[in-house]
């Protein structure tokens, strides 16, 4: 049977236990188990226990296949099983989509604001610019050393918020200078799927 891993992040291998079942009335003997392409991110685990006889009428054998995508996009190969005394190979399609989490934010510039006053809040716009998949936003905070005049309004944000491909998350940023005049600077860190 075919198997599709779906979306898999590059760098995060996913293991799947693949099972071959013999529904025939006779035993079959597996001589070899191969992949049609060994350079596409799919790898076989230990198949030694699956080489040999699989009993009739529901006999099963299992082994691991791991998908660790190398590049973004779709990958597809054939699992090839050679049976003794059979010319044709038994094949099954293996597929998956590799993706890399990508986010983009905008720079914010507040107008000159009187000490003690609040400037009109501006939105930090967080874009999911990945070609595939959704992003899970795990944390949003001001980087150490940022001026205290900046604050993040997180009332509309929940840890674990997910942004689909092409979608945005808007986070209001406040500016309220309370001491000294002059330029104020801050940096906002957005953590998403281990990407900042």
Topology:
Blueprint lengths: L2 E7 L4 E9 L5 E8 L6 E3 L7 E3 L4 E9 L5 E11 L6 E10 L3 E2 L17 E7 L6 E8 L7 E3 L8 E3 L4 E8 L12 E5 L4
Parallel strand pairs: 1-8
Antiparallel strand pairs: 2-6, 3-5, 3-7, 4-6, 7-8, 9-10, 10-14, 11-13, 11-15, 12-14
Inertia-based shape: rod-shaped
How many distinct helices?
0
- Share in helix: under 10%
Question: Cα-atom Rg, whole angstroms?
Answer: 27 Å
Report the mean per-residue pLDDT as an integer.
92
Would you identify the regions where 5 or more consecutive residues have pLDDT less than 50? none
Find the structural class using helix and strand composition: mainly beta
The counted number of beta strands is: 15
Task: Please characterize this protein's 3D structure.
This protein is mainly beta. Helices cover 0% and strands 49% of the residues. It has no helices and 15 strands. The protein has strands at residues 3-9, 14-22, 28-35, 42-44, 52-54, 59-67, 73-83, 90-99, 103-104, 122-128, 135-142, 150-152, 161-163, 168-175, 188-192. A 5-stranded mixed sheet has the order 1-8-7-3-5, with no helix packed on it. It has a 4-stranded antiparallel sheet with strand order 9-10-14-12, with no helix packed on it. Strands 2-6-4 form a 3-stranded antiparallel sheet, with no helix packed on it. It starts with a strand and ends with a strand. The mean pLDDT is 92.
